[in-house]
Automatic annotation (TrEMBL):
Keywords: Amino-acid transport, Cell membrane, Membrane, Symport, Transmembrane, Transmembrane helix, Transport. InterPro entries: AA_transpt_TM (IPR013057). GO terms for molecular function: amino acid transmembrane transporter activity; symporter activity. It holds the Pfam family Aa_trans. This is (wild Malaysian banana) hypothetical protein. Residues 26-459 form the Amino acid transporter transmembrane domain. GO terms for biological process: amino acid transmembrane transport. The chain crosses the membrane at residues 29-52, 58-82, 117-138, 180-204, 271-292, 312-333, 376-396, 402-422, 434-459. Belongs to the amino acid/polyamine transporter 2 family. Amino acid/auxin permease (AAAP) (TC 2.A.18.2) subfamily. Its main location: membrane. The keyword Membrane applies.
């Protein structure tokens, strides 16, 4: 799994090329922020009202603030590892795996690779499920509006997963990460759209209820069993972790930023601060207002809690925005995996015409598209497989919690901390070293607990689930 991605490069930079011989990067603070917001404000925001509902008014917001701080802090540590040595002229590390390879040993490189790409596969599955839920909600909403509130309006989500998969097959043919900046901006706008609608509907529901619902400790024992209360609380941590998860693609985003000055690390830290601050405000508003509106009955997907009735058109707009956002977010997450497999294949079979040859396909306005047959077949196969798996396991809330739990500690905390210690030569048993290790251990405990809660939720769902059945 260890693949060197470094290309031979001329010394110094020119008007057309950066210091590593690659075409000049054009990313800015704002394009990096758009990528991050697209990745962070994903479908996870819709589960936050449910998560706060399990933890209550005290632990819920505190947990959200802690996760935001940890995510920002460890992302800043990771950003410092993009270049080895001098932050302006040191050797670039193009991917998360390259960064680990430059600072840690071979086993950890392989472990990082497996975890990163497994998490990306999981995100692809989770986003496919979330998109289908929104498309089903649109059809059911229109069905109720047309046929009356008592109509059964059963809808099978599988055709919608297939439609989403077809869209991803098309967009997955965009060759490189730096060419999807426009898709990230559209997706970021969509994320604010549906988050704002969810927030507004929550405010209206609170006014309609005549007050704020919920309790200091969350859903009460009696409404659920004592054991369920424990599992649900643990799963809530996983849902919050998933809502902040983007470290697995941080280095790939940073590699799109134009060359210094200022250094890529400084730009990335500012982009992270802006993005995490903005998303945390949205998360707090949406999560807390959702809990205030529904109390212990806060749904796993906030928008479904408002029913499928009036204002049905507003809910339709929100769900369309979710689908458009997830189309872009899917690509932001999967591009690093696509690039890794293609570079590995090219280095393994450098003379293969099937892998290396690009066919010029003419487009309007004197443009052309470079069609690569291996890219076409491999990326299409990936999307098809992830779509089929999504059709077999459509458990949005539990899948979200499990993905957040699996990826949070190793990729968001452990590797950034360990690499920073090596890169900055932090002395063992110094105050900084001890604090970093305590942070890592605390996050490990949260990851294990969250994973246990989410697995319990999936097992519970599997007992009553029937594949391919309309709901």
């Amino acid at each position: 799994m260890e693949v060197s991605l470094e290309l031979g490069a001329p010394q110094g930079a020119s008007k057309c090329f950066d210091d590593d011989g690659r075409l000049k990067r054009t990313g800015t603070l704002w394009t990096a922020s758009a990528h991050i917001i697209t990745a962070v404000i994903g479908s996870g925001v819709l589960s936050l009202a449910w998560a706060i509902g399990q933890l209550g008014w005290v632990a819920g917001p505190i947990a959200m603030l802690l996760f935001s701080f940890v995510t920002y802090y460890t992302s800043a540590l990771l950003a410092d590892c993009y270049r080895s040595g001098d932050p302006n002229t040191g050797k670039r590390n193009y991917t998360y795996m390259d960064t680990v390879r430059a600072n840690l040993d071979g086993f950890k490189v392989k472990l990082c690779g497996y975890l990163q790409y497994l998490n990306i596969v999981g995100v692809a599955i989770g986003y496919t499920i979330a998109a289908s839920i929104s498309m089903v909600a649109i059809e059911r909403s229109n069905c109720f509006h047309k046929n009356g509130d008592d109509s059964p309006c059963q809808v099978n989500s599988n055709p919608y997963m297939i439609m989403f998969g077809v869209a991803e097959i098309i967009f997955s043919q965009i060759p490189d990460f730096d060419q999807i900046w426009w898709l990230s901006i559209v997706a970021a706008v969509m994320s604010f759209t549906y988050s704002s609608i969810g927030l507004s509907l929550g405010i209206v529901q609170v006014i309609k209820n005549g007050g704020v619902r919920g309790s200091l400790t969350g859903i009460s024992i009696g409404t659920v069993s004592e054991m369920d209360k424990i599992w649900r609380s643990l799963q809530a941590f996983g849902d919050i972790a998933f809502a902040y998860s983007y470290s697995i693609i941080l280095i790939e985003i940073q590699d799109t930023i134009r060359a210094p000055p200022p250094s890529e690390a400084k730009v990335m830290k500012r982009a992270t601060l802006i993005s995490v601050a903005v998303t945390t405000v949205f998360y707090m508003l949406c999560g807390c207002m959702g809990y205030a509106a529904f109390g212990d009955m806060a749904p796993g997907n906030l928008l479904t809690g408002f029913g499928f009735y009036n204002p049905y058109w507003l809910l339709d707009i929100a769900n369309v925005a979710i689908v458009v956002h997830l189309v872009g977010a899917y690509q932001v997450y999967c591009q690093p995996l696509f690039a890794f497999v293609e570079k590995w294949a090219l280095e393994t079979w450098p003379r293969s015409q099937f892998i290396g040859k690009e066919i010029q396909v003419p487009l309007p306005a004197r443009r052309s598209y470079k069609l690569n047959l291996f890219r076409l077949i491999w990326r299409t196969t990936f999307v098809v497989i992830s779509t089929v798996v999504s059709m077999l396991l459509p458990f949005f809330n539990d899948v979200v919690g499990l993905l957040g739990a699996i990826g949070f500690w190793p990729l968001t905390v452990y590797f950034p901390v360990e690499m920073y210690i090596v890169q900055k030569k932090v002395a063992r048993w110094s105050t900084r070293w001890v604090c970093l290790q305590l942070l890592s251990l605390a996050c490990l405990a949260i990851t294990i607990a969250s994973a246990a809660g989410s697995i319990a939720g999936v097992v519970s769902d599997l007992k009553v689930y029937r594949p391919f059945k309309a709901s």
